[in-house]
C-alpha cells in the first residue's frame, strides 16, 4: 500500500483526518461483517478471556485466520486483549451492539459493505456504459435484508407500526384480506399471519429464491392463511385485481422497483374503498443539500448506487434510488390516487418513514 501522511498544517486537515478515519473504519466494518458471519462475535460475547486457539476451537474455525481477525479487532478498539496471557474478550456493552444479546445487532449492517463492494466492477461499468446490475448478482441480499427487517420492522410491528392506522389491529383480529408487495422473504407476513389467524395474507415478490424460502418457512410453521407468489409488479397498474384487499403493505419495497408508479397505482386499484396502504420506506429528502444532516446519508447513497438504483435500471426501470426522498414519495403516492396520506417516524428507527395512505 502507498504511504499515507497526514499534513497537520493543511487547511484541509479536518477533512483529511476524516478520510483517514473513514478508511480505517471501513476496514473495521469488513472485520465486523466477517465476525458476524463466522460466529466469532457471538462466541466472544459473555465469555471470559480466550486465547486465539480457544476461540478458534469454540467457533470451529482456523486459528491463523482467527488470530489475524483478532488483531484487527483490537486495532479497531472493538476487542480487548491482555498481552501477558495472549487472551481476548469482547466487553459486554460492545457485545450488546454487535450480537443478538442486545436489542439491535449493528453487525448485521456491516454486511452491506462487503456485499455491495462485491459488485463494484459491475457498477463502474454502468457508470461508463449505462444500464444496471441485475438482482442475480446479489445472492445474499434478501438474506441480509431479512435480518435488517427482523430488527426494524418485526419488533415494532404490532405495538408501533400497525397502530399507526387507527382501528387496523381490531380489523385484523376480526379477519381481513392483506397483501404485501415486494415481500422478500415475507417475515412480516408470517408474523401477522400467526398473530391474526382470522385474516388472509398474500405476498408477491419478483425473487423466486425469496419466495421459495418463504414458502418453506410457511409450510414448516403450518400457516394455512398465508400464500406467496412470484410476481413481476411492473404492470400491477393493469393486472391488480380491483377491490381485492383491505390492507396492502410494502416494507422498503417501492424505491427499487422497475416501475414504482405502476406498482403504486396497482395498490390503489386493488384496495377496497375503506382499505389502508401502509408503507415503510427510507427516510430522506429529495434534495441533496437537505441530506447533509442525515446520520446515515452517505451510506444510504452508497446502497443506492450499488444496489437499489442500479437493479431498477437493469430492468429498464425508473431508477429512483434508495434516497428518493419524502417529497418525491408523497408526489408518487398522490399521483397514484391516494388523497389521505400521513407520514410518521418511529423513535427506534432513524432510517425509515412510515406512511399511512387511504384511497
Describe this structure in words.
One of its GO terms (molecular function) is methyltransferase activity. Residues 173-286 form the Methyltransferase domain. Keywords: Methyltransferase, Transferase. Residues 28-99 form the S-adenosylmethionine-dependent methyltransferase Rv2258c-like winged HTH domain. This is Methyltransferase domain-containing protein. The chain is of the alpha/beta class. It has two domains: 13-100, Orthogonal Bundle (Arc Repressor Mutant, subunit A); 118-358, Rossmann fold, CATH 3.40.50. The model is unreliable at 1-9 (pLDDT under 50). It has helices at 13-38, 40-44, 52-59, 63-75, 92-98, 107-117, 120-129, 141-152, 157-161, 168-174, 187-195, 208-221, 236-239, 260-270, 297-314, 325-335; strands at residues 50-51, 80-82, 87-89, 177-181, 200-205, 226-230, 245-251, 271-282, 340-344, 352-358. The chain has 16 helices and ten strands. The chain is globular and about 70 Å long. The N and C termini lie far apart (58 Å). Strands 6-5-4-7-8-10-9 form a seven-stranded mixed β-sheet, with helices on both faces. α14 links the parallel β7 and β8 (271-282). α1 (13-38) crosses α6, α3 crosses α4 (63-75) and α6 runs antiparallel to α8.
